[in-house]
Write a structure and sequence with these properties.
This protein is α/β, with parallel strands linked by helices. It has two domains: about 210 residues, Rossmann fold (3-Layer(aba) Sandwich), CATH 3.40.50; about 90 residues, no CATH class. The chain has ten helices and eight strands. An eight-stranded mixed beta sheet has the order 1-2-4-3-5-6-7-8, with helices on both faces. The protein is globular, with a radius of gyration of 19 Å.
Length: about 325
């Protein structure tokens, strides 16, 4: 099956979640459908209209929101004076719960992509009684091993581009936590340096996502304000270990072992190698892993397989 036609939301708003933050939310599909929430990637890569196309609008009540600091939520992390201290994984999990209550939803399907998978897993482990099922693509778990792979170990695969990535950093920072070093650049009072850091971070992200056939850069060609928001939030989360104990998600899989799930991962995803998805699948009796043999970190037929899996979840839950 293909992705579903583009639809418009029938309700939307800004929800005050405290700490000076308001998150944008919207609801599309059918009001009487199975409730589902979409958790976008990044951190800091907000939802787009195409996010709605993952869901059959005749079967789902589709909830989409932009996480703190990005997209249509306010304030943006790109703002020079933005305080990121109240932007953590725990805050995002609390925002999801606040939105669920605001929309008067008892339980829902949780759907995520990339960073959104880590957030979905943490949310489910902390609120398992609110999750009916899960569908996740480009699987991540927030381990430091994963961010170390992306920021440093990947230099063995793309040495020329990695040298360009690190040369902006002071030499004293090049052997340490590269996400933390970039976070310091992105918080600099030197606007030119901040902008160059955002550009180079996005160039490197496009590089390590480029392994799949037919990949087209999409981060390094975005407008500068989008790049600044994205780079600030990614480096903020990664330099703090995603605000999780290392290996926290895998250590707590027993809490969600009963929740039906579909995991979709690209065979060519060198950004997030398949081992994370495989380890989660082995630790999750109620899961099924789908490997997409023409996709990387999305791309190829990933969108179609993802939409099909989300549609399949309705069938699973209705027959349970």
């Amino acid at each position: 099956m293909s992705m579903f036609p583009l639809i418009e939301p029938y309700d939307s708003g800004l929800l005050d979640v405290g700490d000076g933050h308001a998150v944008y939310w919207e609801v599309a599909g059918t009001p009487d459908g199975l409730p589902a929430i979409w958790l976008h990637g990044g951190p800091g890569a907000p939802a787009s209209p195409d996010s709605r196309r993952n869901f059959d609008p005749t079967r789902y009540r589709i909830v989409i929101f932009d996480q703190r600091g990005c997209g249509r939520s306010r304030p943006l992390a790109s703002d020079a004076g933005a305080d990121l201290n109240t932007n953590t994984t725990a805050h995002l999990v609390a925002d999801i719960e606040r939105l669920r209550l605001h929309l008067d939803i008892d339980r829902w399907v949780v759907v995520g992509g990339s960073w959104g998978v880590t957030l979905a897993l943490v949310y489910a482990q902390r609120h398992p009684d609110r999750v009916l099922g899960m569908v996740m693509a480009a699987v991540t778990s927030g381990r430091r091993r994963e961010t170390q792979w992306i920021t440093r170990d990947m230099g063995r695969v793309f040495p020329r581009q990695w040298d360009h990535f690190v040369e902006l950093l002071p030499e004293s920072d090049r052997d340490g936590d590269l996400a933390a070093a970039y976070a310091r650049l992105l918080a600099s009072s030197d606007e030119t340096l901040r902008e160059e850091a955002a550009r180079r971070w996005c160039e490197w992200e496009d590089t390590h996502m480029s392994f799949a056939p037919g990949y087209q850069p999409h981060l390094s060609v975005r407008e500068l304000s989008w790049q600044m928001t994205f780079a600030r939030l990614v480096t903020h989360y990664w330099s703090h270990g995603c605000f999780l104990a290392d290996n926290e998600v895998l250590a707590n899989m027993a809490k969600i072992a009963h929740i039906p799930s579909l995991l979709i991962h690209g065979l060519y995803d060198i950004s997030g190698p398949l081992d994370t998805a495989w380890m989660l699948h082995k630790a999750w009796p109620a899961s099924r892993l789908i490997v997409v043999d023409d996709a990387g970190h999305f791309g190829g037929s990933m969108g179609e397989k993802f939409a099909a899996a989300i549609d399949e979840m309705v069938n699973q839950l209705s027959s349970a």
